[in-house]
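== Protein entry: sequence and backbone fold ==
=== Local backbone shapes as whole numbers ===
==== Amino acids and backbone structure tokens ====
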Amino acid sequence: MKKIAFIAAAPMSLKAFLRNHMLALSKNHAVYAIADFSTKDLLELKALGVHPLSVSIPREISPLRDLLALGSLYCLFRREHFDVIQSVTPKAGLLAMMAGRIAGVKKRIHWFTGQVWVTRQGIMRSVLRSADRIIATNATQLLVDSPSQKFFLESEAVISPSHSTVLGVGSICGVDLHRFKVDPIARERIRSQLEIPENHLVFVFLGRLNRDKGILDLASAFARLATEFSHATLLVVGPDEGRISDQFNLICSDVLAHVRRVDYTDSPESYLACADVLVLPSYREGFGSTVIEAAACGVPAITSRIYGLTDAVEEGVTGLMNASGDVEGLYANMKMMAQDPALRIRMGNAALKRARSEFSMELITQHYLDFIKKNILEKNISKVSGK
């Protein structure tokens, strides 16, 4: 039995991305989770058979707190003698990989899931890119959650081809096909709650509201579209992280009757099942998990043609793409979907088929177990239940 620790700055990152992997490994190994846990988090993880250890890791740059977190991780690694540490998210990766190397942990894995510095300029871009290089230098193995992101990181000299791996065709955790599915009951319930007529065409945005997600580009494109298609509705689901709701409302001021807003939800699958088209005009993404979650609900996508999303969408088959920041192109794609119901159905069916065949949660977890068995552990790891 090996001791394996998963590290993230926020507990939600472990729950959202690595929960199934941790549970699968815990059947044969002692699995630990390290983050800044609440009492509720601690109880939930213990009930799952995962050993939680609380360490405060700041997400923002904070030299003093970062140094304290580095010291805490070093002491923890020295005390627990982990065989493997696995980090996710930038700050946790930077501190865990450095602390792990200093503490003598032999197997150190980091999972790249997108780069915040892609949209930055000047010195901050250089600083953040250098941080990713430090992560790569201190890790013994690297995982990347999409082929196009791997190519980008190689081209930026952050990682080397021989030092990094993509599981399957991409994704860190896949999609839970039992949760995200075609659901006529949820579709009817959500539309009724939001007072959206059944015959309306619903475009959905699901995610944090900030400029990098392209939400203001979507507002501009929809403001124009809604004047031409009276049955078009835009459903925006997610917290206003960038404090841009007022600006969004100003852009859509003439068509606000066509907009529905949900601040936060713990059941995104219901809102995706309610929709006809997902729109994600991001400027940066690691992979685009929302795209395959929508696909599992039979919903095609309109996205930016950027790394990460080019792996989540098969352009012209499961969705449409345009250049990031291209409001005219985004509008044109939304108009195409609005005018052609047969296109939406065809792409939605193709997206559903691809989600089931290539991105199931069980399949991605099995890829991860195979990676661990081949590259990290000497002992055989049992298959995922049902595989």
Summary: The longest helix spans residues 63-80. The chain has 15 helices and 13 strands. The longest strand covers residues 30-35. The CA atoms of residues 238 and 264 lie 5 Å apart.
